[in-house]
Specification:
By secondary structure, the chain is an alpha+beta fold. The chain has seven helices and eight strands; from the N terminus they run αααβαααβββαββββ.
Length: 245
């Protein structure tokens, strides 16, 4: 009987004990609120919190001065003009080139073929040399062909390739390249005339309506080069070369 009374008494007293503990926590929170509210009345503390932050612009610029930052705008540079390579040191010296003979004017089958052709293959197919015309049917287009020109009929060192094609195998060693140079028309005529003569080729110079053509043969090898002046002072060229067997 005494045990049951003790248990009942414990049950009744437990809520009172918990309420007493909870009241202590509430009192602690209230005391903290009062302390914070009291600080708001401290003029020195409030002044420090409400004053503007002082910043020295000179020191601010030095902050993270060694840090890597992205540029304010994308890097850009002008595209160099095609004539940038035509400086005086790049021009041939006097005496290095042979002077091409004056062109014959009038009807020219080569120039007529140039005017009729739409593609490099069409231009090669219209050439008088039968081997060149036959090999034109096997042409493959790739800029890599420009690096495989015959040693005795190369591209000019300042050539800017527009299009290139070639055919290799059997009796074909055909190269057809369209390109431009910053050098003037007369210089390029003399340059290719010199290459032809020194390479053992014949060289015939023709012109019609400003379109110049040099052409010739060496055994069963043949070449033809079309040249016209550009508005910027340079030269546009189409070179066809088919090496001999």
């Amino acid at each position: 009987m005494m045990g049951r009374r003790a248990e009942l008494l414990a049950v009744l007293l437990l809520p009172l004990a918990l309420a007493s503990c909870g009241g202590g926590q509430d009192q602690n929170v209230d005391a903290l609120d009062d302390e914070i509210a009291g600080n708001s009345a401290d003029p020195q503390l409030m002044g420090a919190l409400q004053d503007q932050i002082m910043v020295d612009p000179q020191l601010a610029q030095q902050s993270n001065k060694d840090a890597i930052r992205p540029p304010s705008q994308p890097y850009s540079a002008p595209v160099p003009a095609e004539t940038v390579a035509a400086a005086t040191p790049a021009r041939p010296k006097d005496g290095e080139l042979l002077k091409a003979p004056a062109p014959s004017e009038g009807k020219s089958d080569a120039i007529a073929a140039r005017e009729e052709a739409v593609t490099l293959g069409g231009l090669a197919a219209r050439q008088k040399d039968p081997r060149t015309a036959q090999c034109a049917t096997k042409l493959n287009y790739s800029a890599a062909w420009a690096a495989r020109m015959p040693a005795d009929m190369p591209l000019h060192p300042q050539a800017r390739i527009v299009e290139a094609a070639g055919a290799e195998g059997g009796a074909c060693g055909l190269r057809v390249v369209s390109f431009s140079t910053p050098q003037p028309l007369e210089t390029m005529i003399d340059w290719y005339y010199t290459r032809a003569i020194r390479g053992g080729y014949t060289a015939e110079h023709q012109v019609k309506d400003g379109q110049h053509v040099l052409g010739g043969t060496k055994g069963d090898a043949a070449y033809v080069v079309f040249l016209s002046a550009r508005a910027d002072g340079g030269t546009d060229l189409d070179l066809i070369a088919n090496r001999g067997s």
